[in-house]
Design brief:
By secondary structure, the protein is α/β, with parallel strands linked by helices. Helices cover 32% and strands 19% of the residues. The strands form 5 sheets. A 7-stranded parallel beta sheet has the order 3-2-1-4-5-9-14, sandwiched between helices. Strands 7-6-8 form a 3-stranded antiparallel beta sheet, with no helix packed on it. Strands 10-13 form a two-stranded parallel ribbon. The radius of gyration is 20 Å and the shape is globular.
C-alpha cells in the first residue's frame, strides 16, 4: 500500500486541487502550508477534510523534517509568486522559494528519501517565448525597450535585421532566460531539485512548467492573482477588464483541473517520468480573446473589456507551449477547452 504524499503549499490555489485528486485516487495526503496572510485569512474551507494539514513554513528545518515522516512522494507547490520586479523583495522571493526548496531537499537527503519529487515550476523560466524570422530562422529577441513600448511598438523585432517576427511554441529545451525575481527563483528551484535527484539514488525528479493557470479558488486582486482572476474581479465589481498593450499577446491558458491531473500523473511511480515538462493546453490564445470569452460568459450587462495600451516593463510579449513532450512522455494532454473553462470560471468561487 502506498504511503503518504506530502504536498507543500497544499492549501493554495493549485495545491488544493492536487490534494483533491490525490484523495480521490485513494492516497493518504499531508499538507504543509504556512497559510501566508497575503493568500489566506485562515484554514480555507475548500481544503479537503481527508487531508492532514500541518501549518508551518517550509523554510523551517524542524517543521519540514517532521512533515516528511512516513512520506514516500513529494509534491512541492509552496512558493512566493507574483511579478517579482522590485529588488526590495529579493530576499523574500529567495527565502520562500530557494531557501524553502533547499530546506526540503536537505531534509529529504537526511532521510535518504527515494521516490518521486514533483516541483511546481513555471513558463516564466523561458523569458520570452519562441520566435522565427523569415530571414534568420529561430531567434531570441532581447527584453523590450521602454521607448518601444511607450510608442506602442509591442512586437519584439528580429535582433539581427529588425524585421517583424512570427511567434512560435516554446519547447522544454528552449534557452532559459528568467526576467524577474520570481522567474529566477523558479529556475533555481529546478536546478536544486535536479542536482538532488542526480546525487540521490532512487529519486525521480519532475519539473512541471505551468503556463497560465486559471480556475476555481484563484485568489482575487492580490500579488498572487493571475490575469484571468484580475479580469474576473473587475467584472464582478462592474468594471471593464483593463487589457494591456493591444490585447494580442499570446498565452497558453490551462485549467487548474488539468494541472492537478498532470501532478497526479507525475507522482505515479509507474506513469510518471523524469524531466521538465510544459503543462499547458497546447492552444495559444490572446489575452484580449480570453477577456472577451470571460465577459460573454459573465452574461448580459457584463462590462466589455477595454484595451488600454498600458504596459509593464518585464512582461513578455508572447509565450505559449509546445505540449508534445508532455503528451509523449507523461501521457498528459489537457482536456478543458478555454471556452468551457471560461464559462465555469465566470461564476466560480474565488478567494
Amino acid at each position: 500500500m502506498p504511503g503518504c504524499v506530502l504536498v507543500t503549499g497544499g492549501a493554495g490555489f493549485i495545491g488544493s486541487h492536487v490534494v483533491d485528486r490525490l484523495v480521490e485516487a485513494g492516497r493518504e495526503v499531508r499538507v504543509l502550508d504556512c497559510l501566508h496572510p497575503a493568500a489566506h485569512s485562515g484554514r480555507p474551507g475548500y481544503l479537503n477534510p481527508a487531508a492532514e494539514l500541518r501549518i508551518g513554513d517550509v523554510t523551517d528545518p524542524e517543521t519540514v523534517a517532521a512533515a516528511l515522516d512516513g512520506v514516500d512522494a513529494v509534491c512541492h507547490q509552496a512558493a512566493m509568486v507574483g511579478l517579482g520586479l522590485d529588488f526590495g523583495e529579493a530576499q523574500d522571493y529567495v527565502a520562500a522559494n530557494d531557501l524553502g526548496t533547499a530546506r526540503l531537499l536537505s531534509a529529504l537527503a537526511a532521510r535518504r528519501y527515494r521516490g518521486p519529487l514533483v516541483l511546481a515550476s513555471s513558463m516564466v523560466v523561458y523569458g520570452e517565448g519562441g520566435y522565427e524570422c523569415a530571414r534568420h530562422g529561430r531567434v531570441r529577441p532581447p527584453a523590450r525597450a521602454r521607448r518601444d513600448l511607450e510608442a506602442g511598438r509591442f512586437e519584439p523585432p528580429c535582433p539581427r535585421c529588425g524585421e517583424p517576427l512570427e511567434p512560435r511554441p516554446v519547447p522544454e529545451d528552449a534557452p532559459l532566460d528568467p526576467r524577474s525575481l520570481y522567474a529566477a527563483t523558479k529556475l533555481h528551484q529546478e536546478q536544486l531539485c535536479a542536482l538532488f535527484a542526480r546525487e540521490q539514488e532512487g529519486v525521480r525528479f519532475t519539473a512541471l512548467r505551468y503556463h497560465n493557470v486559471y480556475g476555481p479558488r484563484m485568489p482575487r486582486d492580490t500579488p498572487y492573482a493571475g490575469v484571468a482572476s484580475i479580469f474576473r474581479s473587475a467584472i464582478a465589481a462592474g468594471r471593464s477588464p483593463a487589457v494591456f498593450e493591444d490585447g494580442r499577446q499570446l498565452r497558453d491558458f490551462v485549467h487548474v483541473a488539468d494541472v492537478a491531473r498532470a501532478n497526479l500523473i507525475a507522482l505515479d511511480p509507474e506513469a510518471g517520468a523524469a524531466g521538465a515538462f510544459n503543462v499547458a493546453s497546447g492552444e495559444p490564445r490572446s489575452i484580449g480573446e480570453m477577456a472577451d470569452l470571460l465577459t460573454r460568459a459573465a452574461g448580459p450587462g457584463a462590462p466589455a473589456p477595454r484595451v488600454t495600451g498600458e504596459f509593464r516593463l518585464g512582461d513578455v510579449r508572447h509565450v505559449f507551449a509546445d505540449s508534445g513532450l508532455a503528451a509523449e512522455r507523461l501521457g498528459f494532454r489537457a482536456e478543458v477547452g478555454l471556452e468551457a473553462g471560461m464559462r465555469e470560471f465566470a461564476t466560480a468561487e474565488l478567494r
